[in-house]
Amino acid sequence: MADTLTKAAPATQRTGANPEPAPAPTVIADGVDIVYRVHGTGTSGRGAATAALGRILRRRKGGGDGTERGVRTVHAVRNISFTAYRGEAIGLIGTNGSGKSTLLKAVAGLLPVERGHIYTDGQPSLLGVNAALMNDLTGERNVHLGGLAMGMPREQVRERYQEIVDFSGINDKGDFISLPMRTYSSGMAARLRFSIGSAKDHDVLLIDEALATGDRSFQKRSEARIRALRERAGTVFLVSHNNKSIRDTCDRVLWLERGELRMDGPTAEVMREYERFTSA
Ligand SMILES: Nc1ncnc2c1ncn2[C@@H]1O[C@H](COP(=O)(O)OP(=O)(O)OP(=O)(O)O)[C@@H](O)[C@H]1O
């Protein structure tokens, strides 16, 4: 496994001629490749336990030529480089399986890179529809635990509790916040996750499809919040298949296709090309 390098990037750059501080880079991806290894393939229909035992025995026998039978690789991201700056909202687009979520997870430090490096200034936080909250705990407990897990002081979580609940709209149709999260619809759960995740100012906020869930009015609220988060501090990355959300929220777009960066530029330009590509 290769390592994901997380280093502080220079906070500002200045040129002699221009007294204005240059925009501060927050994320630098430098020639990044990401490869998944899928174990247990080619097991000829054997059960999972038998296949796992076989893998252990093969490993004990030694690596041989270094490749393991029954392991397949998926090269999900190929040689991607970009620099993101403070104050930018960057959309990540591409057809299914093009590597958007994979790249986002690597920026968050949750996946190792095979080649290249990712440098981040500040702590990236991944706010995905699958962000881990505890299904057996009430919404209320999850607000507190989620806030603490993001590093908010206990007092701040208490102060912002009501606002988090109100923003999520969970209690709009009754007292649902005191019920376990497993009783929520997928849309309700996603709204609460977004509401918790966005209650804190993030250096680098990574949002994976959170806006695809929730109804139109919640989507509008979320978009406004993303704009506010972006103004207050860091950089926002948004993965979405909703072209309108991308247009309304982002000023720059990275378009990935088959793991490669096909285009990186102003939203209008990239979206025009992408829509031409997807409608062809
Ligand atoms: N855990 C995994 N193990 C193996 N391969 C994976 C895994 N997760 C994703 N992949 C593969 O990596 C490639 C990129 O997937 P990824 O989820 O990053 O794409 P995406 O652009 O986010 O797709 P979508 O728009 O459908 O959500 C795909 O070929 C996918 O099959």
Q: End-to-end span in angstroms?
A: 38 Å
Poorly predicted regions: 1-16, 62-66
Which class do the helix and strand fractions yield? alpha/beta
CATH homolog superfamily of the domain at 80-123 and 202-279: P-loop containing nucleotide triphosphate hydrolases
- Which strand order does the major sheet show? 5-6-7-3-8-9
> Helix content range of the residues, please?
25-40%
- Overall geometry: globular
- Round the Cα radius of gyration to an integer and report it: 21 Å
Which series of helices and strands comes N to C?
A: EHEEHEEHHHEHEHEEH
Quickly count the helices: 8
CATH class of the domain at 80-123 and 202-279: Alpha Beta
- Distinct ligands, ions and cofactors found in the model: adenosine-5'-triphosphate
- As a percent range, the share of strand residues is 15-25%
Could you please describe the fold and organization of this structure?
This protein is α/β, with parallel strands linked by helices and 280 residues long. It has a domain at 80-123 and 202-279: P-loop containing nucleotide triphosphate hydrolases (Rossmann fold). Helix content is 35%, strand content 24%. It contains 8 helices and 9 strands. The strands form 2 sheets. Strands 5-6-7-3-8-9 form a 6-stranded mixed sheet, with helices on both faces. Strands 2-1-4 form a 3-stranded antiparallel sheet, covered by helices on one side. A hairpin with a 2-residue loop joins strand 8 and strand 9. Helix 3 packs across helix 4 (154-168) and helix 3 (139-149) runs parallel beside helix 5. The two termini are 38 Å apart. Residues 36, 38, 74, 76, 94, 96-102 line the site of adenosine-5'-triphosphate. This is Putative Teichoic acids export ATP-binding protein TagH. Residues 1-24 are annotated as: Disordered.
